[in-house]
Amino acid sequence: MSENLKQFKLKYASLTLHFGPHALNELEEDLSKHERILVVTGRRSAKESGALDEALSILSKHGIVYDIFSDVTPNPWSSQADKMAYRAWEFGAEAIIAIGGGSVIDTAKVAAMIAVSGGKAVDYIYGKRRARGHIPVYAVNITHGTGTEVDRYSVLTVDDVKEKRGFISIYPSVSVDDPRYTITLPRSQTLYTSLDAFYHAYEAATQPWASPFVEMLAFETIKLIRDWLPVAVEKPVNLEARYKLLYASMLAGIAIDMAGTHIVHVLEHVLSGMKPELAHGGGLAITGPRSAYYIHKKSPLASARLLQLLDPSIRPLAEDASKAEAAIRRFQESVGFTETLNQYGFSDVDLIKIAEKGEWPLELSTEDILDILKKSL
Predict the structure, then answer these.
(1) What is the mean pLDDT of the chain?
(2) Torsion angle, alpha carbons of 183, 284, 259, 138, to 10
Protein backbone atom coordinates (compact mmCIF):
# COMPACT_ATOMS: atom_id res chain seq x y z
CA MET A 1 0.00 0.00 0.00
CA SER A 2 1.29 3.48 -0.87
CA GLU A 3 2.73 5.48 2.02
CA ASN A 4 0.34 8.26 0.97
CA LEU A 5 -2.64 5.92 1.47
CA LYS A 6 -1.66 4.17 4.66
CA GLN A 7 -4.25 2.73 7.02
CA PHE A 8 -4.31 4.02 10.60
CA LYS A 9 -6.40 3.97 13.78
CA LEU A 10 -7.45 7.09 15.65
CA LYS A 11 -9.00 7.23 19.11
CA TYR A 12 -10.97 10.41 19.69
CA ALA A 13 -13.46 11.15 22.48
CA SER A 14 -15.30 7.85 23.08
CA LEU A 15 -14.91 6.46 19.56
CA THR A 16 -12.35 4.55 17.54
CA LEU A 17 -11.87 5.43 13.87
CA HIS A 18 -10.32 3.07 11.33
CA PHE A 19 -9.07 5.04 8.33
CA GLY A 20 -7.73 3.95 4.96
CA PRO A 21 -8.32 1.44 2.17
CA HIS A 22 -9.98 -1.77 3.40
CA ALA A 23 -10.41 -0.29 6.88
CA LEU A 24 -13.76 -2.07 7.17
CA ASN A 25 -11.84 -5.28 7.89
CA GLU A 26 -10.81 -3.74 11.21
CA LEU A 27 -14.48 -3.68 12.23
CA GLU A 28 -14.83 -7.47 12.06
CA GLU A 29 -13.82 -8.13 15.67
CA ASP A 30 -16.40 -5.66 17.01
CA LEU A 31 -19.19 -6.94 14.78
CA SER A 32 -18.53 -10.57 15.67
CA LYS A 33 -19.56 -9.88 19.28
CA HIS A 34 -23.20 -9.38 18.22
CA GLU A 35 -25.89 -11.84 17.18
CA ARG A 36 -28.43 -9.44 15.64
CA ILE A 37 -27.58 -6.20 13.83
CA LEU A 38 -29.70 -3.64 12.00
CA VAL A 39 -28.02 -2.45 8.80
CA VAL A 40 -29.04 1.10 7.88
CA THR A 41 -28.53 2.64 4.43
CA GLY A 42 -29.86 5.22 2.00
CA ARG A 43 -31.64 4.26 -1.19
CA ARG A 44 -28.66 3.40 -3.45
CA SER A 45 -25.27 4.76 -2.38
CA ALA A 46 -24.32 2.03 0.11
CA LYS A 47 -24.82 -0.62 -2.56
CA GLU A 48 -23.18 1.35 -5.37
CA SER A 49 -20.10 2.14 -3.29
CA GLY A 50 -19.45 -1.52 -2.49
CA ALA A 51 -19.59 -0.87 1.26
CA LEU A 52 -22.87 -2.70 1.79
CA ASP A 53 -21.73 -5.94 0.16
CA GLU A 54 -18.46 -5.92 2.10
CA ALA A 55 -20.26 -5.32 5.40
CA LEU A 56 -22.82 -8.04 4.73
CA SER A 57 -20.00 -10.43 3.87
CA ILE A 58 -18.55 -9.94 7.36
CA LEU A 59 -21.94 -10.48 8.98
CA SER A 60 -22.56 -13.65 7.00
CA LYS A 61 -19.09 -14.97 7.81
CA HIS A 62 -19.89 -14.81 11.52
CA GLY A 63 -23.49 -16.02 11.23
CA ILE A 64 -24.89 -12.70 12.43
CA VAL A 65 -28.59 -12.25 11.76
CA TYR A 66 -29.30 -8.89 10.15
CA ASP A 67 -32.17 -6.78 8.88
CA ILE A 68 -31.84 -3.87 6.46
CA PHE A 69 -33.51 -0.48 6.88
CA SER A 70 -33.07 1.63 3.72
CA ASP A 71 -35.63 4.39 4.16
CA VAL A 72 -33.27 7.29 4.94
CA THR A 73 -33.38 10.24 2.55
CA PRO A 74 -31.12 13.28 2.13
CA ASN A 75 -32.02 15.96 4.69
CA PRO A 76 -33.64 13.22 6.82
CA TRP A 77 -36.88 13.66 8.76
CA SER A 78 -37.35 13.07 12.45
CA SER A 79 -39.97 10.44 11.61
CA GLN A 80 -37.29 8.38 9.85
CA ALA A 81 -35.31 8.16 13.08
CA ASP A 82 -38.49 7.06 14.88
CA LYS A 83 -39.18 4.34 12.30
CA MET A 84 -35.58 3.15 12.40
CA ALA A 85 -35.64 2.98 16.20
CA TYR A 86 -38.86 0.95 16.14
CA ARG A 87 -37.35 -1.44 13.57
CA ALA A 88 -34.26 -1.87 15.75
CA TRP A 89 -36.38 -2.54 18.84
CA GLU A 90 -38.78 -4.89 17.02
CA PHE A 91 -35.91 -6.82 15.44
CA GLY A 92 -34.03 -7.04 18.71
CA ALA A 93 -30.95 -5.38 17.25
CA GLU A 94 -27.93 -5.33 19.52
CA ALA A 95 -26.22 -2.73 17.33
CA ILE A 96 -26.66 -0.62 14.19
CA ILE A 97 -24.31 -0.47 11.22
CA ALA A 98 -24.92 2.85 9.45
CA ILE A 99 -23.54 2.78 5.90
CA GLY A 100 -23.85 6.15 4.23
CA GLY A 101 -23.14 9.83 4.54
CA GLY A 102 -24.33 12.35 7.06
CA SER A 103 -28.04 11.67 6.62
CA VAL A 104 -27.75 7.94 7.33
CA ILE A 105 -25.25 8.19 10.19
CA ASP A 106 -27.01 11.15 11.86
CA THR A 107 -30.34 9.31 11.80
CA ALA A 108 -28.79 6.10 13.12
CA LYS A 109 -27.28 7.93 16.09
CA VAL A 110 -30.70 9.20 17.11
CA ALA A 111 -32.42 5.87 16.50
CA ALA A 112 -29.82 4.14 18.68
CA MET A 113 -30.81 6.41 21.57
CA ILE A 114 -34.55 6.01 21.08
CA ALA A 115 -34.28 2.21 20.87
CA VAL A 116 -32.96 2.13 24.45
CA SER A 117 -34.20 5.34 26.06
CA GLY A 118 -37.64 5.64 24.45
CA GLY A 119 -39.51 8.70 23.28
CA LYS A 120 -39.41 10.20 19.82
CA ALA A 121 -36.76 12.06 17.88
CA VAL A 122 -38.41 15.43 18.53
CA ASP A 123 -37.92 14.90 22.27
CA TYR A 124 -34.16 14.82 21.76
CA ILE A 125 -34.11 17.52 19.08
CA TYR A 126 -35.74 20.04 21.42
CA GLY A 127 -33.90 18.87 24.54
CA LYS A 128 -36.99 17.51 26.29
CA ARG A 129 -35.41 14.11 26.81
CA ARG A 130 -31.89 12.84 27.41
CA ALA A 131 -30.59 9.42 26.45
CA ARG A 132 -30.13 7.02 29.38
CA GLY A 133 -28.27 4.68 27.06
CA HIS A 134 -28.05 3.56 23.44
CA ILE A 135 -27.13 0.54 21.36
CA PRO A 136 -23.73 0.78 19.62
CA VAL A 137 -23.53 2.51 16.25
CA TYR A 138 -20.88 1.39 13.79
CA ALA A 139 -20.54 4.15 11.19
CA VAL A 140 -19.25 3.28 7.72
CA ASN A 141 -18.86 6.68 6.12
CA ILE A 142 -19.03 6.85 2.31
CA THR A 143 -18.67 10.60 1.67
CA HIS A 144 -15.88 13.12 2.27
CA GLY A 145 -17.86 15.90 3.88
CA THR A 146 -20.03 15.07 6.81
CA GLY A 147 -17.66 14.63 9.76
CA THR A 148 -20.47 12.87 11.63
CA GLU A 149 -18.39 9.70 11.92
CA VAL A 150 -16.19 11.56 14.42
CA ASP A 151 -18.58 13.99 16.08
CA ARG A 152 -21.47 13.86 18.57
CA TYR A 153 -24.04 15.74 16.50
CA SER A 154 -27.05 14.87 14.40
CA VAL A 155 -29.16 17.02 12.11
CA LEU A 156 -32.82 16.18 11.45
CA THR A 157 -35.83 18.03 10.05
CA VAL A 158 -38.99 17.98 12.19
CA ASP A 159 -41.81 16.74 9.96
CA ASP A 160 -44.69 18.88 11.20
CA VAL A 161 -42.97 22.27 11.12
CA LYS A 162 -40.23 21.54 8.54
CA GLU A 163 -37.63 22.90 10.94
CA LYS A 164 -34.13 21.53 10.44
CA ARG A 165 -32.05 21.46 13.60
CA GLY A 166 -28.66 20.28 14.72
CA PHE A 167 -28.34 18.87 18.24
CA ILE A 168 -26.14 16.69 20.41
CA SER A 169 -26.85 12.98 20.01
CA ILE A 170 -24.00 10.47 20.47
CA TYR A 171 -20.62 9.51 19.09
CA PRO A 172 -20.49 6.31 17.05
CA SER A 173 -18.75 3.51 18.92
CA VAL A 174 -16.48 2.65 16.00
CA SER A 175 -16.25 4.35 12.60
CA VAL A 176 -14.73 3.49 9.24
CA ASP A 177 -13.37 5.95 6.65
CA ASP A 178 -12.40 4.06 3.49
CA PRO A 179 -11.69 6.25 0.43
CA ARG A 180 -12.61 3.40 -1.92
CA TYR A 181 -16.25 3.95 -1.04
CA THR A 182 -16.16 7.59 -2.16
CA ILE A 183 -15.01 6.91 -5.73
CA THR A 184 -18.62 6.35 -6.85
CA LEU A 185 -19.79 9.73 -5.57
CA PRO A 186 -21.44 11.67 -8.41
CA ARG A 187 -19.72 14.89 -9.42
CA SER A 188 -22.37 16.96 -7.65
CA GLN A 189 -21.90 15.05 -4.39
CA THR A 190 -18.12 15.28 -4.71
CA LEU A 191 -18.56 19.07 -4.72
CA TYR A 192 -21.29 19.25 -2.09
CA THR A 193 -19.54 17.06 0.45
CA SER A 194 -16.11 18.62 0.01
CA LEU A 195 -17.50 22.13 0.33
CA ASP A 196 -19.39 20.99 3.42
CA ALA A 197 -16.04 20.08 4.97
CA PHE A 198 -14.61 23.44 3.83
CA TYR A 199 -17.30 25.36 5.72
CA HIS A 200 -16.99 23.09 8.76
CA ALA A 201 -13.36 24.16 8.96
CA TYR A 202 -13.91 27.83 8.18
CA GLU A 203 -16.77 28.28 10.63
CA ALA A 204 -15.15 26.32 13.46
CA ALA A 205 -11.90 28.31 13.26
CA THR A 206 -13.72 31.67 13.16
CA GLN A 207 -15.68 31.01 16.33
CA PRO A 208 -14.72 33.47 19.10
CA TRP A 209 -13.72 30.55 21.33
CA ALA A 210 -11.80 28.52 18.72
CA SER A 211 -8.53 27.13 20.07
CA PRO A 212 -5.21 27.11 18.22
CA PHE A 213 -5.75 23.36 17.80
CA VAL A 214 -9.05 23.95 15.98
CA GLU A 215 -7.36 26.58 13.81
CA MET A 216 -4.63 24.07 12.94
CA LEU A 217 -7.21 21.44 11.95
CA ALA A 218 -9.07 24.00 9.86
CA PHE A 219 -5.91 25.18 8.09
CA GLU A 220 -4.96 21.64 7.09
CA THR A 221 -8.54 20.92 5.98
CA ILE A 222 -8.75 23.90 3.65
CA LYS A 223 -5.27 23.29 2.26
CA LEU A 224 -6.17 19.69 1.40
CA ILE A 225 -9.47 20.68 -0.20
CA ARG A 226 -7.76 23.43 -2.20
CA ASP A 227 -5.19 20.98 -3.52
CA TRP A 228 -7.25 17.83 -4.02
CA LEU A 229 -10.84 18.79 -4.87
CA PRO A 230 -9.84 19.93 -8.37
CA VAL A 231 -8.12 16.57 -8.86
CA ALA A 232 -11.18 14.58 -7.71
CA VAL A 233 -13.46 16.60 -10.01
CA GLU A 234 -11.14 16.05 -12.97
CA LYS A 235 -10.27 12.41 -12.15
CA PRO A 236 -13.08 10.89 -10.02
CA VAL A 237 -11.32 7.52 -9.63
CA ASN A 238 -8.10 9.02 -8.29
CA LEU A 239 -7.89 7.19 -4.97
CA GLU A 240 -5.25 9.50 -3.51
CA ALA A 241 -7.49 12.52 -4.09
CA ARG A 242 -10.39 10.74 -2.39
CA TYR A 243 -8.14 9.73 0.52
CA LYS A 244 -6.95 13.30 1.05
CA LEU A 245 -10.47 14.73 0.85
CA LEU A 246 -11.75 12.10 3.29
CA TYR A 247 -8.90 12.93 5.65
CA ALA A 248 -9.77 16.63 5.36
CA SER A 249 -13.39 15.88 6.14
CA MET A 250 -12.39 13.89 9.23
CA LEU A 251 -10.22 16.76 10.50
CA ALA A 252 -13.07 19.20 9.93
CA GLY A 253 -15.46 16.89 11.79
CA ILE A 254 -13.23 17.04 14.86
CA ALA A 255 -12.98 20.82 14.48
CA ILE A 256 -16.75 21.31 14.59
CA ASP A 257 -17.05 18.81 17.42
CA MET A 258 -14.77 21.08 19.42
CA ALA A 259 -15.95 24.51 18.28
CA GLY A 260 -19.22 24.15 16.37
CA THR A 261 -20.44 26.07 13.33
CA HIS A 262 -22.28 29.37 12.97
CA ILE A 263 -23.93 31.49 10.30
CA VAL A 264 -23.44 29.43 7.12
CA HIS A 265 -24.80 26.25 8.69
CA VAL A 266 -27.62 28.04 10.51
CA LEU A 267 -28.77 29.63 7.24
CA GLU A 268 -28.50 26.37 5.35
CA HIS A 269 -30.62 24.55 7.90
CA VAL A 270 -33.40 27.06 7.38
CA LEU A 271 -33.12 26.89 3.60
CA SER A 272 -33.07 23.10 3.20
CA GLY A 273 -35.72 22.77 5.90
CA MET A 274 -37.96 24.73 3.53
CA LYS A 275 -36.70 22.99 0.38
CA PRO A 276 -35.41 19.48 1.21
CA GLU A 277 -34.29 19.03 -2.38
CA LEU A 278 -31.49 21.52 -1.64
CA ALA A 279 -28.42 19.42 -0.79
CA HIS A 280 -26.77 20.42 2.47
CA GLY A 281 -23.37 21.14 0.95
CA GLY A 282 -25.00 22.96 -1.93
CA GLY A 283 -26.87 25.27 0.42
CA LEU A 284 -23.65 26.02 2.29
CA ALA A 285 -21.77 26.80 -0.90
CA ILE A 286 -24.53 29.07 -2.20
CA THR A 287 -24.62 31.27 0.90
CA GLY A 288 -21.02 30.76 2.01
CA PRO A 289 -19.16 33.37 -0.06
CA ARG A 290 -21.30 36.32 1.00
CA SER A 291 -21.41 34.99 4.56
CA ALA A 292 -17.61 35.07 4.52
CA TYR A 293 -17.80 38.83 3.95
CA TYR A 294 -19.39 39.20 7.39
CA ILE A 295 -17.34 36.43 9.02
CA HIS A 296 -14.12 38.13 7.94
CA LYS A 297 -15.30 41.42 9.44
CA LYS A 298 -16.05 39.69 12.75
CA SER A 299 -12.97 37.46 12.87
CA PRO A 300 -10.39 38.90 10.45
CA LEU A 301 -7.30 37.23 11.92
CA ALA A 302 -8.58 33.65 11.82
CA SER A 303 -10.36 34.21 8.51
CA ALA A 304 -7.26 35.63 6.85
CA ARG A 305 -5.04 32.77 8.04
CA LEU A 306 -7.33 30.30 6.31
CA LEU A 307 -8.28 32.22 3.20
CA GLN A 308 -4.71 33.22 2.41
CA LEU A 309 -4.54 29.62 1.20
CA LEU A 310 -6.86 30.76 -1.61
CA ASP A 311 -5.60 34.33 -1.99
CA PRO A 312 -2.27 35.21 -0.30
CA SER A 313 -3.05 38.94 -0.52
CA ILE A 314 -5.92 38.76 1.98
CA ARG A 315 -5.00 40.69 5.12
CA PRO A 316 -6.31 40.18 8.69
CA LEU A 317 -8.21 43.44 8.39
CA ALA A 318 -11.95 44.05 8.24
CA GLU A 319 -11.54 46.08 5.05
CA ASP A 320 -10.46 42.90 3.22
CA ALA A 321 -13.88 41.30 3.72
CA SER A 322 -14.74 41.68 0.05
CA LYS A 323 -11.52 39.89 -0.91
CA ALA A 324 -12.46 37.04 1.44
CA GLU A 325 -15.83 36.69 -0.27
CA ALA A 326 -14.25 36.83 -3.72
CA ALA A 327 -11.59 34.23 -2.88
CA ILE A 328 -14.15 31.62 -1.82
CA ARG A 329 -16.48 32.36 -4.73
CA ARG A 330 -13.59 32.12 -7.18
CA PHE A 331 -12.44 28.77 -5.75
CA GLN A 332 -15.94 27.32 -5.89
CA GLU A 333 -16.38 28.45 -9.49
CA SER A 334 -12.98 26.98 -10.39
CA VAL A 335 -14.19 23.50 -9.41
CA GLY A 336 -17.52 23.97 -11.16
CA PHE A 337 -19.91 25.08 -8.42
CA THR A 338 -22.18 27.89 -9.63
CA GLU A 339 -25.58 27.13 -8.08
CA THR A 340 -27.88 29.85 -6.73
CA LEU A 341 -31.00 30.01 -4.59
CA ASN A 342 -33.02 30.92 -7.69
CA GLN A 343 -32.48 27.43 -9.02
CA TYR A 344 -34.35 26.02 -6.00
CA GLY A 345 -37.35 28.31 -6.31
CA PHE A 346 -36.63 30.79 -3.52
CA SER A 347 -38.28 34.17 -3.94
CA ASP A 348 -37.68 37.61 -2.44
CA VAL A 349 -40.67 36.99 -0.18
CA ASP A 350 -39.09 33.78 1.13
CA LEU A 351 -35.83 35.57 1.86
CA ILE A 352 -37.52 38.35 3.80
CA LYS A 353 -39.37 35.81 5.94
CA ILE A 354 -36.13 33.95 6.63
CA ALA A 355 -34.21 37.10 7.56
CA GLU A 356 -36.93 38.14 10.00
CA LYS A 357 -36.93 34.81 11.85
CA GLY A 358 -35.05 36.09 14.90
CA GLU A 359 -31.58 36.26 16.39
CA TRP A 360 -28.62 35.18 14.26
CA PRO A 361 -25.07 34.05 15.09
CA LEU A 362 -22.19 36.54 15.14
CA GLU A 363 -24.68 39.25 16.11
CA LEU A 364 -25.68 39.68 12.48
CA SER A 365 -28.72 41.88 11.88
CA THR A 366 -31.82 41.14 9.84
CA GLU A 367 -30.38 43.46 7.18
CA ASP A 368 -27.12 41.51 7.12
CA ILE A 369 -28.93 38.20 6.68
CA LEU A 370 -31.14 39.62 3.94
CA ASP A 371 -28.03 40.88 2.16
CA ILE A 372 -26.43 37.40 2.31
CA LEU A 373 -29.57 35.78 0.96
CA LYS A 374 -30.14 38.31 -1.83
CA LYS A 375 -26.50 38.04 -2.95
CA SER A 376 -27.08 34.26 -3.11
CA LEU A 377 -30.09 34.39 -5.44
Answers:
(1) 96
(2) -40
